[in-house]
Design goal:
Helices cover 80% and strands 0% of the residues. It is mainly alpha-helical. It folds into two domains: 177 residues, MFS general substrate transporter like domains (Growth Hormone, Chain: A, Up-down Bundle), CATH 1.20.1250; 189 residues, MFS general substrate transporter like domains (Growth Hormone, Chain: A), CATH 1.20.1250.20. Helix 6 runs antiparallel to helix 7 and helix 8 packs antiparallel against helix 9. The longest helix has 33 residues.
Length: 397
């Protein structure tokens, strides 16, 4: 059954990545049709992120208590309905409401998809499987950019949302049919029933050290990831590259992330988690220093962005995959939900920090050297996680 469930999970992640990218892609068409300024949609663009954090924190952990099948299927149904509802919107407030509901359901769904993937994956390939399934989000976002013009020509901007919403409802029906009706019971050494299904489980004395390193690493990595992603096209154009070249080079960053996530996760499955993350981050810092040599060269920038993307964007996929080594299944959804919610802080703060540097006309190399500071923090957290893991193994023995 796992052979059918895991591909469906990948499609869920892919369509969720599409859905997250849908509103920004629809924005130019909406501005033209509604005759409003782009800034008027700021609330709608932010609503999905706010909802995602709330859903991950408050609803996602309930999969540990009531079963992941229920949370996955019901949240997918809500995502599909809210996405279709977005296509029917005719006012800014309607967009805000529907996008918030979409984000709320996404936040509930994604942690439980990841936790269920860990259950279904072969033990020897658990981290790599989680990373591969999670990569669907990036692929879905890329797919959205490729097919949006065709959808708009065929049925206008609403079809961007109708197509996604309809497909999500089909996925919900398919997973309702194939997912086990009962989840695996919590382990005997898991949290008390009262704590299970809430973030309290991951904040208990038993799991607090693991939560500190897992959530901390995910949040700091999100900070540097979104700091780079938000300002990368601008930085490349200031270094003498054309806007078209800058847009194309961002694909090297994303492509490096997909490859890096799978490579790091492969080493995680072989017990080399600390070495894999440390080497990846060290290569990123070296690439930051080398950006001064690129000097408007698209070839050199492409090579450097592959390395940077592998270590930063790739680590973001692998961090989620590595969480399976810290928590039992009984609190996995809670841990992931907390990490996704808290990482929103890093995702918001990163672009703001980058914007402060851009406002001072900082050149690309100094910008990336500033990014090296949070990467060093990531290395420190990875090294600390090794001590946490040893303490957990000693306690279990």
């Amino acid at each position: 059954m796992a052979r059918l469930i895991l591909p469906l999970f990948f499609m869920v992640m892919m369509i969720d990545g599409y859905d997250l990218a849908a509103m920004p892609l629809a924005l130019p068409y909406l501005v033209e049709e509604m005759g409003v300024e782009p800034a008027a949609f700021s609330g709608a663009l932010s609503a999905v992120l706010l909802g995602l954090g709330a859903g991950a924190l408050l609803i996602g952990p309930l999969g540990d208590r009531f079963g992941r099948r229920l949370l996955i299927v019901s949240s997918l149904a809500l995502i599909g309905a809210a996405t279709i509802g977005t296509g029917f919107s005719s006012s800014i407030m309607e967009f805000v409401v529907w996008r918030f509901l979409t984000g709320l359901a996404l936040g509930a769904c994604l942690p439980n998809i990841t936790a269920s993937t860990a259950e279904q994956a072969p033990p020897e390939r658990k981290a790599a499987t989680i990373a591969l399934i999670s990569a669907g989000i990036s692929i879905g976002a890329i797919l959205a950019g490729l097919i949006t013009p065709a959808l708009v020509k065929l049925g206008g901007w609403p079809l961007i949302f109708y197509a996604a919403g309809g497909f999500i409802l089909l996925l919900a029906a398919a997973l309702f049919a194939v997912l086990p009706k009962t989840d695996a019971p919590a382990s005997e050494d898991g949290p008390a029933p009262a704590a299970r299904g809430s973030i309290l489980a991951t904040l208990s004395p038993r799991y607090l050290p693991a939560t500190a390193v897992f959530v901390g690493l995910y949040t700091v990595n999100a900070f540097v990831l979104y700091m780079i992603v938000s300002w990368l096209p601008h930085l490349l154009t200031t270094d003498g590259l054309s806007a078209d070249a800058a847009s194309q080079l961002t694909a090297f960053f994303q492509g490096g992330g997909l490859a890096g996530g799978l490579v790091i996760s492969w080493f995680i499955d072989r017990g080399r988690r600390v070495a894999a993350f440390t080497i990846a981050y060290a290569l990123v810092i070296a690439a930051f220093f080398a950006t001064g040599l690129a000097s408007g060269s698209a070839v050199l920038w492409g090579a450097l962005l592959l390395v940077i993307g592998s270590g930063v964007s790739g680590a973001h996929l692998a961090i989620m995959a590595s969480s399976a080594s810290f928590y039992p299944q009984s609190v996995f959804s809670s841990a992931i939900g907390l990490a996704v919610a808290v990482a929103r802080i890093g995702a918001i703060a990163g672009p703001l920090a980058g914007g402060a540097l851009v406002a001072r006309d900082v050149a690309p190399q100094p910008f990336f050297l500033v990014c090296a500071a949070p990467v060093l923090v990531c290395i420190a957290i990875v090294l600390a996680s090794a001590r946490v893991r040893k303490a957990e193994e000693a306690r279990a023995a």
